Description:
The chain is α/β, with parallel strands linked by helices. It is about 35% helix and about 20% strand. The longest helix has 26 residues, at about 75-100.
Amino acid sequence: MSFDVIIIGAGPGGCRAANVLASAGKSVALISQTLGGECLNYGCIPTKTYLWTTELFEKISQSQNFGLKTTEIKLDWEAMKQRRKQVVEKLKKGLKFTLERAGVKIIEGTGALQDASTITVTQPSTLNQEPSTLSASHIILATGSWAVSPKGFETGGKIVSSREILDLPQVPQKLLIIGGGAIGVEFASIFSTLGSQVTIAEMADRLIPNEDPDVSAELARLFARKNIIIKTKTLITPEQITDYDCVLVAVGRKPVTQGLGLERSGIRTGEHGVIETNDFFQTSAPAIFAIGDLAGKALLAYSAEREADIAAAFILGKKPKPLLYSTVPNTIFSSPEIASIGLTEPAARQKGMDIIIGKAPYSANAKALIVDSRDGFAKIIAEKSSHKILGIHIIGEKATELIAEASLAITYKLTLEDFAENIHSHPILGEILKDACEAALFYVRGA
Ligand SMILES: Cc1cc2nc3c(=O)[nH]c(=O)nc-3n(C[C@H](O)[C@H](O)[C@H](O)COP(=O)(O)OP(=O)(O)OC[C@H]3O[C@@H](n4cnc5c(N)ncnc54)[C@H](O)[C@@H]3O)c2cc1C
């Protein structure tokens, strides 16, 4: 069978590319092991479904602060797992409908390149038979990434990855999380509220080491308040896990390239097995593209989708604008939430930039008081001479929503004045961004 485009991998990147290309009239086959990929089945959606429940529980536990009287409420792990499955299934149904309506042929199975235009598909039900062969003028690889397990921490028994932890038969009493990055701190938030004694071991000198140090410090302060034990500059060995009844390994992810047949199709890989691509996600085999986690640029669902848009536009003969990764926000859905875009303070200083900083605490924001979420802050970093905004960092209530406005400031190179003059309604949490800009401007005027 022959198609205009074959896509291997049906995560956010693969599904988006399939939808765009089929909607533009191309014949498209999508080879799918699990429709929706890591994001829908094991990542973004399951974790955020759990976080919604644990955050709701935290809020209701403080109900007396809102003038509410409640009887005892309890978290129900079994019911949470059921609800997560329902949410995932509903979204999967919607995704399948959207793709089929666009004309995408979804083929269940595992795809492998035979050469630069031919793919074989092994279907789960026909494992003992010859795989079917498909050909296409363009191929997009979107096979995602897998969780790395260091030696001695292979999953099995009480050692789990971000997948198995979703289905634990019961909430662990003592949970060790190895890795204090985004995935580690999200699960720390979930399981500490569920009642586990959580310890996070992080090799670097602070949690979420890619974020601004002030944000890491605030997260550590708020996690300590939840009795989460944080061990930084700590490299755990397999002998040190006897005290824990569950160990989550969240130390990073690697591209899924094994068995894909890269070597048969002239695709070059670089450091850590990442496929080399140009601005349009074209590999060294010009008719083959690699997007999403597999391309290894930003391991996020929304950057995978944008990469899909760019690769699809290129295949359609358009001239898409390359993706500027400095305009991709980071979002961590821990409790408290964290979101950032642009330069951190140390990164700006390392570049030798003369900067000004404005900070606004949630505690001075009317809406934050109304919803009783007074922890956290917004921090804005701007160039001193031009007032151009270089970085925005938020930790606190709805940070992952507020970052959308911040993204515009970075993408469109706004100044502190531009941002502060943009009228914000009142009372909203978003006023902290305006307040942080005004704090930076006040600093300049006062200096
Ligand atoms: C716990 C966790 C939480 C996360 N939370 C967020 C979040 O809140 N927001 C966010 O933006 N990102 C989040 N991410 C990251 C996000 O899931 C990924 O960046 C995103 O899924 C990448 O999309 P993708 O299309 O590149 O690949 P994936 O979603 O990984 O999909 C690739 C698919 O390809 C399949 N596949 C692999 N090999 C083959 C083959 N040979 N043939 C056929 N199919 C194949 C895989 O089985 C998989 O289904 C999270 C990740 C994890 C692990």
